[in-house]
Write a structure and sequence with these properties.
- A four-stranded mixed β-sheet has the order 1-4-5-8, with helices on one face.
- The protein has helices at residues 11-25, 29-35, 40-48, 67-80, 82-105, 110-119, 232-265, 273-300, 305-333, 343-351, 361-373; strands at 123-125, 137-141, 144-154, 162-171, 175-184, 190-193, 207-217, 221-226.
- The longest helix is centred in the middle third of the chain and has 34 residues, at 232-265.
- The protein has eleven helices and eight strands.
- Helix content is 51%, strand content 16%.
- The termini are far apart.
- It folds into three domains: 11-121, Butyryl-Coa Dehydrogenase, subunit A, domain 1; 127-226, Butyryl-CoA Dehydrogenase, subunit A, domain 2 (Beta Barrel), CATH 2.40.110.10; 232-373, Up-down Bundle (Butyryl-CoA Dehydrogenase, subunit A, domain 3).
């Protein structure tokens, strides 16, 4: 972990660390895919190289790395092991949102950021099931709330420390209200259920986290918002999160592309080899451009409906064209890529998960159209 007295790590040093990790996790990626097991080696390396504290501002004891730098690191790792890259991206967006809100909105996130840096904490979020509404319920009790619910898509929960999540509270005065809070994954009433048996991204360990009467004190509620509407918090999340998450998918597509090119060069050329390679690289270029714009949005744009719509367009374009690029890589590689011993087969399955993060294709188009037309988005 980065010591508080250590000089600031440069971008090139972060990228060197990512390269070292990528070389190592590539050795285990297929095993974790075969076994539906968590990418423990990758997370151990990420911890030892200071990546879980990288986005914490230096004044709070962290690495002070930029969004662009860590997105590039995720992309590098994604070429080797999509599961490690994606699970890590989920941690990153929580830290990045907290840092942005503290700097630009004066949000009281300093305590959490300092804890992440001091304790090298791994943060876990609960995915799209807790978008504008929330899965789970909060019951008011003396001194706080009792939380009950099933939280899918808890990426990294196998080695996680704090679960950042929410629950719906029927406030007698304000109406349906979503409460935001963090609970230790080892707290009483928190249980991880091994549900993550999926087509791809099998090593992310995105199991369901069950909250069974977990007590959250009043002071532990970090925020409240009306249920089902676009609160400013979600405009901040939307502008920040998808730059990290979709850097992982871009990395997967780049890894498949490189393997396909290597395979094609070993075979006798046919009239369609160059055509397929060109189609693949065109798809990849669009994904790269969209991801680069997503990073610019995360770093420079002010949150709001227009920014959210643009970020979601970048999320959709990066994912769509990353999937298309891997499809072309599969085709370019020929029948050998149909075998599970070929990493392209795993990458083809891994990249399909890009379809399922919010906002998915049709809701994203609806949002973009509503923003363009000046219609309400709630």
């Amino acid at each position: 972990m980065l010591a508080k007295t250590e000089s600031i790590i440069t971008q090139s040093e972060w990228l060197d660390r990512a390269d070292r990790i990528a070389a190592e996790i590539a050795r285990y990626a297929q095993t974790h895919d075969n076994e539906d097991s968590f990418v423990e080696e990758g997370y151990t390396l990420l911890k030892s190289e200071g990546f879980f504290t990288a986005l914490v501002p230096t004044e709070f004891g962290g690495g002070g790395a930029s969004t662009a730098t860590i997105c590039e690191c995720i992309r590098i790792m994604g070429r080797a092991c999509g599961s490690t890259a994606l699970a890590f991206a989920m941690h990153c967006h929580i830290v990045a949102v907290a840092a942005w809100r503290h700097k630009h909105q004066g949000a009281p996130t300093e305590g959490m950021l300092k804890r992440v840096a001091a304790e090298n904490l791994v943060l876990v979020s609960t995915g799209g099931n807790d978008w504008l509404s929330s899965g789970g319920t909060a019951e008011k009790v003396e001194g706080g709330f009792r939380i009950t619910g099933r939280k899918p898509f808890g990426s990294g929960s196998a080695m996680g420390d704090l679960l950042n999540t929410s629950a719906l509270y029927e406030d007698p005065e304000a109406g349906p209200t979503v409460l935001h809070f963090a609970v230790p994954l080892k707290a009483e009433g928190v249980r991880i259920e091994q549900t993550w048996h999926t087509m791809g991204m099998r090593g992310t360990g995105s199991n369901d986290v069950l909250l069974e009467g977990v007590f959250v004190p009043d002071a532990g509620v970090a925020g409240r918002r009306p249920a089902g509407v676009w609160h400013m918090l979600f405009h901040v999340i939307s502008k920040m999160a998808f730059a990290f998450i979709y850097s992982a998918y871009l990395g997967v597509a780049e890894g498949a592309r490189d393997l396909a090119i290597e395979s094609a060069r070993k075979r006798a050329p046919n009239p369609f080899t160059a055509l397929l390679a060109g189609e693949m690289d065109n798809e990849l270029m669009v994904a790269r451009l969209a991801n680069a714009e997503a990073i610019a949005i995360a770093e420079d744009w002010e949150p709001g409906p227009e920014t959210t719509s643009a970020a979601m367009q970048c999320r959709q374009l990066t994912g769509h064209h990353a999937i298309a690029a891997v499809e072309k890589a599969l085709e370019l590689s020929g029948g050998s890529a149909f075998y599970r011993k070929n990493a392209i087969e795993r990458m083809f399955r891994d990249v399909q998960a890009a379809r399922f993060h919010p906002l998915q294709a049709k809701p994203q188009l609806d949002l973009a159209g509503r923003v363009a037309l000046g219609w309400p988005i709630d």
